[in-house]
Structure formats: C-alpha cells, structure tokens
Amino acid sequence: MDMKKLFLCIGLVFSMTGMDAQETENETSVTVQIRPRAEYRNGALYPRNEGDEAAGFINNRARMSLDYRRNDLSMKVAAQHVGVWGQDPQIDKNGRFILNEAWAKLYLHNYFYAQLGRQSLIYDDERILGALDWNVAGRYHDALKLGYEKERNKLHLILAFNQNDENIIGGTYYAPGAQPYKSMQTLWYNYVMSHLTLSALFMNLGQEGGDPATKKADTRYLQTFGANAGYNYNVLTLYGTVYFQTGRTAADVSVSAWMASLKASYAVDKKIGLTVGTDYLSGTGSDDAKYKAFNPLYGTHHKFYGTMDYFYASSFQNGLNPGLWDKYAGINFVMSKKASLSAMYHHFSIASDVKNGNDNIKKGLGSEVDLQFNWNIMKNVMLTGGYSVMFGSESMDIVKGGNHDSWQDWGWISLNINPRILFAKW
User: Fold this and answer.
1) Among candidate residues 344, 343, 413, 410, the one with its CA nearest the CA of residue 375
2) What is the distance of C-alpha 300 from the center of its chain?
3) What is the mean pLDDT of the chain?
4) Cα(235)–Cα(233) distance, integer angstroms
5) What is the spatial distance between Cα 71 and Cα 106, in angstroms, rounded to a whole number?
6) Alpha-carbon gap, residue 347 to 328, rounded angstroms
C-alpha cells in the first residue's frame, strides 16, 4: 500500500465522527502528552550539607496513548519516552521507548469484567496503590484484575506474579531493577451512598528474599489491610484512613505496623478553601525487636508528606525507619476560572524512640512550607509551578542526613500539553 492510499484510509476512518452514538459499536481515540518540568534542587528529597551546590535540570515525558472501545471490549496501549534534557546524544540508537500501559478489558456476563496486562492501579486516595503521575515515568503493574461493578458496589480482585526472566529450572532471585514484588493478591471493595463513600482493602504481598550470591530464593509474605471513609456535604469534606500490616519483611523479620490519617476540607466561599489534617505512620525504634515501621508500598507519596519528598519517596539514613507524624494546614485561593494559588504548612515528627548514643533524640524533625500555582493557559495546556522550604532540626540531621543550619529549598515549573488529537466512532 502506497502512502496516498494509507492516508486516504486513515482519513475515512476518522471522518466517521458524525454517526449516531446508538448505531456506533467502536470508538477509538489518540491522545498525546508532552510534559517538561524544570527543577531547582537545593535540599529536595534529602537535606543538603553546608557547601553543597544546588542542582538544576529539565526532565520530560513524551507519551502517546491509543484507546479502543466497543460494547464488550476496551483496550489501551500507551508508549512513552522519559528522561532529562541533554542525557541522550544527538544521534541516539538506544531506542528507550517503553510501554507504560498495555491492557485489555473484557466485559463479561452482566456486571463482571477482566482486565489484564500492564496497567496503573489507582485506589481510594492513592495511599497504598497509586499512579504516581508526579514522577516523570509514573508507576505500572503487570496484573490481572477481575471486577464486579453494579450501581453503588464495586469489588475488585487483583492478581500478579512476576519473574525476572523465562526460567527453565527453579525461581529467580530478585535483583534491583525489576518489579519490587514477586506475587500480589489484592481484594478491594467500595460502597457509595449519597454523601458517604466506604472502602476496604486487603493485600497479600510476596517479597523475594534469600541469598543473592547463591541465587537461592525465599519468598516472605506481608499482609496490609484497612479501610477508608469519605464524607461530603455542601462545603465540608472529611476523609479518614486506617491500615495495619503484619507478616514478615523480605529480610524475614516479623512485622507489626499501622497508620492512620484524617483530613478535613472546608469551602469558605467559591474562591477560598481551607484544609487541615494529620497522618501518622508507625516506626521502628532503636530497642524494638519487631519491625514496626509501616510501609505505604506503591502509593503516590508525593501527594501526602510534603512536596519536597523527604518521606517515603526517599529513604531514611543509617538503616533507620522511625515512622512519621505529619500535621498540616493549608489554603487554596481561586483567582479566576483559569488560575489558582495554594499554600500548605507541614510539621513533621518521628513516631518512635530513636537513640543517638544512649539518649533518645527529640522527635520534632522540623517544618515545611509548600507554595503552588496552577494556570490553564488554553485548552489542554496547563502551566504549574511551586516553591518549597524545609526548616529542619538536629533530629532531621540524624534520620535524614545533611545540615539543618543550611538553607533547604526547592523550586519547579512544568508545562503539561495533553490534547486528544484523533477520535472516531464507527
């Protein structure tokens, strides 16, 4: 087929958009996203030491998504290239495009469906399972999802089994660079009423332990279970979460951990909104025999514990995992239909007793201030940016490193261009 015939066929397909929806069985759309983000890091993720120079870079996501739907089938394939401006040579043969989504959804009898393949798992407020869209690469899972959805009720069963390669004999010891778990079984239930939403989640996670030298694998299982409740009435929104963890770590240590959160939002008027809340995640102290540090696993941590990502998006130092108690309050101001400003204040403390020598350190870690603006420049084009400052304590130096006397700040600006460029019904 020559190029003229190819473009003629494409034009015929996408010219059929005027057909009546009731007579249409197939829908296809193509969306494209270009999202560069410039960052200035002078203490983001980890506190810097005195004299450390600031870092600056521009990262970029280029993603194309193809969606297809008919009465009994949906499919999505999304390919992306992510990286930092300048990291690739001008003549590049690496071919680093990857599929961040590639799944098919089969609508079965009545209200049942099966969705299998590479997919984002987004549940509740993304505390345990989230898309991590802030990260330039995002997050995906290779999984099978079995679902039942009818009116107010949703029930999902998610199953995953991972390996590093096609094995001939035995299993594979998990090396860095692969999925972080070997197997996963998750059950989620959601019930929606007029002003109240309730959900419950149970996850059994198989993590690969063993000896990397001998490649002898040993899978240990961690259980996470909990519930969420959301209430919305007029100008008031409340959201609460509680989770527990038991089982064993990949290093075969017994786990007993928990977390809880409560958030309240109030709309003063159409322009001003207020938010207050607290998150508490248990930690392991210096004298604890059990592992008591709650692991929020594969959630979107950037949404919660301060946008400078000191907690759970980056690790503690010296093998510590002291947990976190975050108290926060914020305000959002809608300037116009296209622009808004927000400010959030966090105060952080550790949740366990950590020793420095023979004495417990003070639990206060410091405070963070996060500022952000959002501006819809035009249809499908959003400009966002922010600036954050961390005021750490001596205890922050012990659990995260750096020097609290050094100025710690972070700034960023991002342009998100995300139009749907093709759409057809036939």
Assistant:
1) 413
2) 3
3) 92
4) 6
5) 9
6) 6
**Within 10 Å of residue 227's Cβ, how many Cβ atoms?**
14
Question: What is the CA 241 to chain-centroid distance, rounded?
Answer: 17
Residue pair 167/173 in contact by the 8 Å Cβ criterion = no
Of 33, 61, 193, 190, the closest CA to residue 122 belongs to: 190
> Is 69 exposed, middle or buried, given 0-12, 13-18 or 19+ CB atoms closer than 10 A?
middle
pLDDT digits (tens, 9 = 90+) for 367-398: 999 999 999 999 999 999 999 999 999 999 99
Output DSSP code: residue 166.
-
Residues in a beta bridge with 107: 113
Cβ atoms of residues 240 and 265 within 8 Å: no
Distance (Å) of CA 359 to CA 83, 334, 395:
45, 48, 12
Q: Are 402 and 48 in contact (CB under 8 A)?
A: yes
Burial 144-170 (b: 16+ CB within 10 A, else e): ebbbeeeeeebbbebebebeeeeeeee
Query: Looking at residue 24, what is its pLDDT?
Result: 59
H or E stretch at 382: strand 381-392
Token pair for 405: 């006397």
pLDDT in tens, 283-342: 999 989 899 999 999 999 999 999 999 999 999 998 899 999 999 999 999 999 999 999
Give the Cα separation of 327 and 323 in Å (integer): 14
Phi and psi (nearest 5°) for 97? -65, 135
**Mean pLDDT computed over 11-20:** 46
Tell me what the mean pLDDT of segment 205-214 comes to: 79
What residues contact 69, with CB distance under 8 A and at least 6 apart? Answer: 26, 27, 28, 75
Helix (H), strand (E) at residue 395: helix 394-400
Measured between alpha carbons, how far is 113 from 80 in angstroms, rounded to an integer? Answer: 27
How many Å apart are CA 196 and CA 348, to the nearest integer?
Answer: 30
Give the tens place of pLDDT for each residue, 138-156.
Answer: 999 999 999 999 999 999 9
Residue 370, C-beta contacts closer than 8 angstroms, at least 6 positions apart: 306, 307, 308, 330, 343, 344, 345, 346, 386, 388
